[in-house]
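Can anyone check this?
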Amino acid sequence: QMLFDGFGVSSEVDRNKARVESAAYKTAGTADILGLKAIEAYLNVLRLREMVKLSQDNLDFHLKTQDQIRVRSGGGVGRKSDQEQVDARVGLAKANLVSAQANLRDAEIQFLRVVGSKPESLVTPTPPGPDVMPKSEEDAVRIAVENHPYLKSAVADVKATEFQQQAAKSFLYPRFDAELGYNNGDNFDGQPGTNDEKYAMLRMRWNLFRGLSDAARIKETGYFKVQAQEVRNRTQRQVEEASRLSWNALVSVRERLPDLRVHADKSRETRDSYAQQFNLGQRTLLDLLDSENELYRARENLKTAEYLEVFARYRLLQDTSTLLSHLEVTPPEEAIFEPSK
C-alpha cells in the first residue's frame, strides 16, 4: 500500500479533474456557438422571405405601370421610349425577384443543415429585452470575462499544467510503502524441509540521481504552464474584443434604424406623389420608375437593418454566455461541470 509518493498520484488526479473541467467548458462554448448559428439561420430565412415579398411588390408595381403605358400607347398618346423604358425595368424587377427567391432557397438549405429540419411555421421572435441585455459596453465585457466558457476552459488548462508540474516534482521525494508478505513451501531450492516466511515493513525508496531527467521534466512542465497562461491571456483578450465588437454592432445598427425608417417613409410618400403627378403629366415615366426603385431599396435596407438589430442582441448574449439560459435551452450533459467535494 503506497503511503506517500511526493503527491504524485494526487497531483495526477487533480490534473485530470482540470482536464475534465476544461473539456466541459469547451463543450458549453460549442453549444453557445451552435445556438447562435441556429438563430442566425432562423432570422436569415425570415429576412429573405421579406426580401422576396418586397421584390414581388416591386415587380407588381412595374407590371401595373407597364399596363398603364401600353394603354397609353394603344390610345396613341404614349411614346415608344416609355414603352422600352418600362419593359427594361420590368425585366430588372423580375431578375431581382428570381435572385431573392434563390437567396431564400439557399437560406432554407442552410437552416436545414444547422437545425436539422426544414423551416416550416416560422414566426418572428420577440428579441431579448433590456432586462437581459448588458447595460453598457463595460458591463458586457465584465459579464463576458466572468462567464465565457472558453475563457473558463483556458483557466482550467492552466490549473492542469500546474498540477502536471507538481506531479513531475513528486520524483524528487522519497516513496513510502507499507508492505506485508507471506511465503510457505517445502523443499525450496532442493533443500529438504519447510520454508515459512512472514514480514511486515515500511519500505522507503528514494532515487537520488536519474541523469537529471527529473529536472528536465520539471523544466518542461514549466514551459507548458507558461504556454497555457499565454493561451488564457489571449483568450481573455479575444473574449473582451468580441464583446466590444458585438456591443458596437448593436449600438451602430440601433443608431441607423431611425434614419432608415425616415428614408423608407419619405420614399413611399415620394413614390405616391410621383405616381399622381405622372398621371397628370407633371412627371416623366423615368421619374416614377426611379422613385419606385428608391422605395424598393429603402425598404430592403430597413428590413435588413431590423433583422441585424435583432441578431446583434442575440450575438451579444452569446458573447456574454447568457444565450442558452435566455432561450431556456438545457446545455448537453457533457457541458455541465460539477466539481467533486
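Reply from J.R.: I decoded it. The helical segments are 8-74, 80-115, 137-147, 149-169, 213-279, 285-319, 323-327.
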